[in-house]
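Chapter review: from sequence to fold.
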Amino acid sequence: MVSISNLNWNFRNHLAFFLNLLCFLIKLVSTFVLLILHTESLRAGILPVTQIEYLFNGEILDESSILSQALISKTDIERGDTVSHYKIRRCVEAIYSIGDFSQVRVVEKEIESGIILVFQLTSKIRISEIKFDGNILDRDFVLEQIHSETGKEYSEEIAQRDVRKILSLYMDYGYFNARVRFTVPSKKRSADEIPLRFEIAPYARATIGVIKFIDNLAFNDKDIQSALEIESSQFYQKKTVEKEISRLRERYRQKGYLSVQIVSSQVYNSSLNTTALTFRIVEGKRVIVKLIGSGFDKKVLREKLEIFKQGNYSDYVLRSNAQRIRQIYQQKGYYDPQVKFRITKESKEGVVITFDIDLGKVPRIRKIDFVGNDAFSNADLLRQIVTRKRSFFSFPGLGWLFPEGVFDPMAFDRDRKALEIFYKKNGYLNTRIKVEKHVNSKTNQLHLQLKIDEGIQQQIDNLSFEGNTIFGEDQLVSVISARLGMPYSKELVEQDQRKLEILYDRKGYIYTSIEPKYDESTGILIYRVAENKQARLGKFYIHGNLKTKDHVLQREFENAGLKEGEVFSFERLMDAKRELFLLGLFHSISIRTPDRIDQKEILDINVRVEERKPGSISLSGGYNPSSEIFSFKSMRGTFGLNYNNLYGRNLRVSTKARFGTEGNLYETTLIEPWLVGDTIGTFRVFEDNLQEISDITRARGGIASLIKRLGINNKFSVQYKYQELRQRKRELGTTVSSFGLSFHRDNRNHLFNPRNGQLNEFMIEYAGGLLSGATSFIKVTTDHRFYGDVADVIFANAIRLGFEKGLRNQVRLPSFERFRIGGATTVRGYDEMSLGPLDEFGNHRGDVMFVFNTELRFPIYKLVGAAIFFDLGNVWDEPRTLNGLIKDIRVNQPWSALGFGLRIDTALGPARLDYGIPIDQNVDGKLHLALGHAF
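The token string follows.
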């Protein structure tokens, strides 16, 4: 008999044997596999990389393509290198960083001579367009609410989220039964783009049913309902309900219920398609605010208190309102108004809060002193601040023109900070300014004293750059304004930092960061440059242009040097945006680029525009300000029709009719901004009836011109003009066929109110000869204007010259073509077109023109300015010889005038009133009222 114990022992021995055998076999197989893998890896590591290929969506990329070049720059492996899986992983990460691929795989193909590395790239599927079927809400509004966007990566999860968002929008507008879903085509039109379509079934819109109010004690239901703008049977809209809650809350707070809480709820009845509204009102305690004191309008002050908006009457809120009252009256000139508050009664029904106000007196500033200012004079410092002592001419009603000497502590504190900034701009980094105020109680006058501790002026003793490889140090120094020996100014250095960033931006290094460091102890200024990678332009995605063709926008970007594959520049992008605004087609233009944090090398641009209405009708009337002021002899009216986007191509067509006592004008103009490339083509037909002294001259004809942009400031134009001229009473007529060339350069800082810069224009016109026409002449005109400013004073100068000569036995040119001067824009102090010799018809005309103007413009107070001017000019008949012209000028010297005027800045430009006084002439002075400067 075999015992149980022996059987158990044998079983355990056999089991242990088999387990040991199994472990041995596993170790043997593992060792064999590792040996094979190690051998293969050693073999692969020995074999060189003979070729690198890039497959984009299954197709081999051409090495010369833009995408290939971008991929090559990201690949840290070259032909001849041994295969390194670490390097391959780094390459994959770098390619992913471009941001255009959803998947990057690497396949190693072994051949006799080595390894072929194949990078298999799958593009991200981007949204080519977004469509809404059945949408009845504003399309742009819906687009702003969803996350999917044209040009961005398509995501089914995001599209589902957008479906829920659109459904929520429709419910907010009362479409409680709306249904929304999204679809994408099963067959894509391209490998990397897909259209996204949202199908919307809004169904019927719900109306408001019963409106209930709960727990309202201060106002009954009828009073509340009459104050609201919603009522039963009106279409439901969540935004309207929220607006009415705000209106009702404000009404409660104005009655003193500061902590009122109003919550609305709705119950939708699907069978009636109505929603019942319930407003639950928790009124809280009523707060009664009393204002005790004299010398102020309690009603006006009550409206300025914040307590009715803050919703409580805590100690902090009451103190802040007391301080607000104090500030309000300090700004009105009360030096030290006292405001105290107290809670005079508190119960379950409400609370009474009383503000006790003692305004005191309004002292006037008699003197402003500076102490300790060695670097700058008192006058220099006064120019930096707004606060002024009382003027001798400060009378009631003239405070807008002459300072009244009112002390505003908040404005004066801003003045103190402005002085500190002024010192810092000039190298005094540690300037401290202490203010002392002294009031003379007897004279009620205020003496302000600013004690200045200037500190030590910091200078730039050494200037250097670190990390720059794209530009040399000489190039960087030429861009910035900082120089050795200059006072150190943080503002100047920050401006230079921006200039350097713009320099790098122009070369596509938009991720360049520049960090200036200044050491006060040594005077060393270092610009540390991290250049980072260069960016190139990807694709443009344009939205919102319902009428305007895509190419109208694209050509403006291309004209700014922004084409796919070109170096990207934010500066050029802003230039293109400015040009788009100048087209006059869009209310708004939004340009979105990928976040700089991502540092993408290829940037896709999303452009969203909101179009203006292309058509307009204009009707205006008035009088010509260049004529006699308030004279009914110069009345006129104008009617115009304009359309700025014909066929969606930005073709501009306009027609205008002007009727007046000085003549009529009828014209039609067609402008093609891109007739030949970026050359502007203009075509105009007109009939102009000009009222002369003794007759009406009619000019009828047409003009065709080409204008070529030459950079930002320059334009070159070619013009052909044909006119029929006729004087009605004398039945005299002629024709003029002319060809003209002109060059225009304008770098003024402002079109209507320039402070600096120049305008230079030269034009030559030839008529007759090969161009036919009964009149033959050559005419040359120039216009040069120069502007400069020192502090707030502007020095403006202009010189205008003209010469014309009849050709081919043309002794005298038509009056319409000859020069005429005098009046508001040439030589002030004289009537319009009243200077120079008289022709046979009694009109002042000439063949040689000279006009010189110089003007000093300076501010007086706020928007009001003044000017002192000198004008000089005349016209003369055509001379036969140069000596004859000199003799004529000596005999008939230029007319001149001195004068002064007032200027007021308006939204339409400066309005001016000038008074010119003729010099050495028995002529009275003359007033001129006009909009815009004389030159």
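Two observations follow directly from the output. Residues 1-5, 37-45, 626-630 have pLDDT under 50 and may be disordered. The longest strand covers residues 696-710.
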